[in-house]
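step=encode ok
step=design start
structure_in=
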């Protein structure tokens, strides 16, 4: 929760950003999801790269999902000045790249089209993990943040169809609509990664989407990091230590529930093979 002092500082920063919006960079790549798949860890690692410019105030601006009506100048106001980018480019001999990380972008039904329209040529990074563990992690996360009121993971799963019924259609029909359930209670739906990638692919093209198995990110971070840098066309400048962030304690999952969810996700996981170039790590 923001303190009054932090809110005031953000307001001043936004005002300054809006006043200089025309002189600020726009992202050349985005980390768009998936939620609870290591996006914060990747964001922090990339933020340490000398040629990567993060948002001024927070890792995710949430323009393309929650604030699109504010307009592109508002969005641009969240990023560094072009003068700063020029200085970095002069120092390293390569153009720096700005980015943000907002894991709801992948799941929001309108975000992909908005990104394609406003950021032509942008590259997108998608992290995926065992969707069963992702669902359980998401429930613990939303419960801890106060966005979930159902303490039972199994009961929350049972409630999901009713909670999400018609919400994607409402989001498409009314661009100004915000759905609490769609954003915070989609435990199974967010784990059907291939479904979301299929929606994104025709909008930006497969060659501009990198899908990374987060198992690799934590098992072999150097290799995962180099894959990301290669996708972005950036050189390796120093070593980066990956750390886990936002981990939440959670109760063990009953074997029967795990088995049922694993069966639920099996066909969706199979559709990830062409994206990953390999069987997902959690299916090996």
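sequence_out=
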């Amino acid at each position: 929760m923001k303190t009054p002092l932090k809110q005031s500082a953000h307001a001043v920063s936004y005002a300054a950003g809006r006043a200089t919006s025309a002189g600020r960079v726009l992202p050349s790549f985005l980390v768009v999801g998936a939620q609870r798949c290591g996006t914060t860890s990747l964001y922090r690692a990339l933020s340490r790269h000398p040629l990567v410019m993060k948002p001024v105030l927070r890792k995710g601006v949430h323009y393309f999902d929650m604030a699109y009506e504010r307009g592109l100048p508002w969005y641009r106001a969240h990023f560094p000045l072009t003068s700063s980018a020029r200085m970095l480019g002069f120092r390293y001999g390569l153009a720096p790249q700005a980015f943000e990380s907002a894991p709801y972008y992948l799941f929001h039904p309108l975000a992909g089209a908005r990104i394609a329209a406003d950021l032509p040529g942008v590259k997108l990074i998608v992290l995926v993990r065992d969707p069963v563990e992702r669902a359980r992690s998401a429930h613990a996360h939303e419960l801890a943040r106060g966005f979930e009121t159902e303490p039972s993971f199994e009961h929350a799963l049972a409630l999901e169809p009713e909670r999400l019924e018609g919400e994607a259609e409402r989001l498409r029909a009314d661009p100004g609509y915000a759905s609490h359930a769609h954003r915070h209670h989609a435990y199974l739906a967010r784990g059907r990664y291939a479904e979301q990638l299929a929606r994104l692919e025709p909008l930006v093209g497969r060659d501009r989407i990198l899908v990374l198995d987060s198992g690799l990110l934590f098992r072999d971070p150097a290799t995962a990091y180099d894959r990301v840098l290669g996708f972005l066309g950036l050189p390796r400048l120093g070593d980066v230590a990956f750390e886990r962030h936002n981990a939440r304690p959670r109760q063990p999952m009953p074997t029967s529930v795990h088995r049922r969810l694993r069966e639920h996700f099996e066909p969706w996981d199979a559709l990830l093979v062409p994206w990953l170039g390999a069987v997902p790590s959690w299916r090996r």
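step=design ok
step=annotate ok -> The first strand starts at residue 29 and ends at 33.
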